[in-house]
């Protein structure tokens, strides 16, 4: 798969998703019911972050048992993380930033990948390695929509998934930006609701959010 086709593939996944929930799974037994709850609410594209010891096993379980879910891996920090994501059958990978080692590994990987950027210099490094679909992170803390628009001046062709500080109140505003494919966030699956096993509540939140954002 060429670099261009990988970037077009992840762009299509993000555009179709609208919202990508950022999932930090503490207990393996929560993985499958959480994925089912999200999918039932119309949220199919999921980012399982490598922030907990059970993350890889959780992603494997989702892929095996929830075929309607499009499972990607987030918080990819190095080539080893990238290789693990590719080996388990993830559909895409996302990182919070991009070291030269990680960008080089991602450029040669078969996994569609979006590196994290927060500055023009970081974006230039990503572009130099063939990545024009990026994660703008942390979006609000790095300057918000004003910063995104400023970056769009010299880089009008770059496509973005902003994450960080995005929630129900401002997701539609971000999605209205012409270079934004989707937004990432954890507000659709609060940790308290996951711990309580409130799967019906998570499904309802997702359905409401998707209806509102698609309409907007």
UniProtKB/TrEMBL annotation:
Q: Show the Pfam families listed in the entry.
A: Aldolase
Which molecular-function annotation in GO is an example for this chain?
A: 2-dehydro-3-deoxy-phosphogluconate aldolase activity
Give its E.C. classification number: 4.1.2.14
Keywords recorded for this protein, A-Z: Carbohydrate metabolism, Lyase, Schiff base
Q: Tell me yes or no: is Lyase among this UniProt entry's keywords.
A: yes
Pathway(s) per entry: Carbohydrate acid metabolism; 2-dehydro-3-deoxy-D-gluconate degradation; D-glyceraldehyde 3-phosphate and pyruvate from 2-dehydro-3-deoxy-D-gluconate: step 2/2
What CDD domains does its record include? KDPG_aldolase (cd00452)
Supply the InterPro entries for this chain: Aldlse_KDPG_KHG, Aldolase_TIM, KDPG/KHG_AS_1, KDPG/KHG_AS_2
User: Which Gene3D superfamilies does UniProt cross-reference here?
Assistant: Aldolase class I
Q: Which PROSITE patterns match?
A: ALDOLASE_KDPG_KHG_1, ALDOLASE_KDPG_KHG_2
Q: Which reaction does it catalyse?
A: 2-dehydro-3-deoxy-6-phospho-D-gluconate = D-glyceraldehyde 3-phosphate + pyruvate
Is Lyase there in the keyword field?
yes
- Highest taxon of source: Bacteria
Q: What family does the Swiss-Prot or TrEMBL record give for this protein?
A: Belongs to the KHG/KDPG aldolase family.
Q: State the oligomer form and interacting partners.
A: Homotrimer.
Kindly give the PANTHER family that the UniProt entry links to this protein.
2-DEHYDRO-3-DEOXY-6-PHOSPHOGALACTONATE ALDOLASE-RELATED, 2-KETO-3-DEOXY-6-PHOSPHOGLUCONATE ALDOLASE
Recorded protein name is 2-dehydro-3-deoxy-phosphogluconate aldolase
């Amino acid at each position: 798969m060429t670099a261009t086709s990988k970037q077009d593939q992840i762009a299509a996944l993000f555009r179709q998703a609208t919202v990508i929930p950022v999932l930090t799974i503490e207990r393996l037994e929560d993985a499958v019911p959480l994925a089912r709850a999200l999918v039932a609410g119309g949220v199919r594209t999921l980012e399982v972050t490598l922030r907990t010891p059970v993350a890889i096993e959780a992603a494997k379980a989702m892929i095996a048992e929830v075929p309607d879910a499009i499972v990607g891996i987030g918080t990819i920090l190095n080539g080893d993380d990238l290789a693990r994501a590719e080996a388990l059958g993830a559909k895409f990978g996302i990182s919070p930033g991009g070291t030269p080692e990680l960008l080089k590994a991602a450029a040669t990987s078969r996994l569609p990948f979006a590196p994290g950027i927060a500055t023009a210099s970081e974006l230039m490094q990503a572009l130099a390695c063939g990545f024009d679909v990026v994660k703008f992170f942390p979006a609000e803390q790095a300057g918000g929509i004003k910063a995104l628009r400023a970056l769009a001046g010299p880089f009008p062709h770059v496509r973005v998934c902003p994450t960080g500080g995005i929630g129900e109140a401002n997701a539609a505003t971000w999605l209205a930006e012409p270079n934004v494919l989707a937004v990432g966030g954890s507000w659709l699956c609060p940790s308290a609701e996951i711990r309580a096993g409130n799967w019906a509540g998570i499904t309802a939140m997702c359905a409401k959010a998707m209806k509102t954002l698609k309409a907007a």
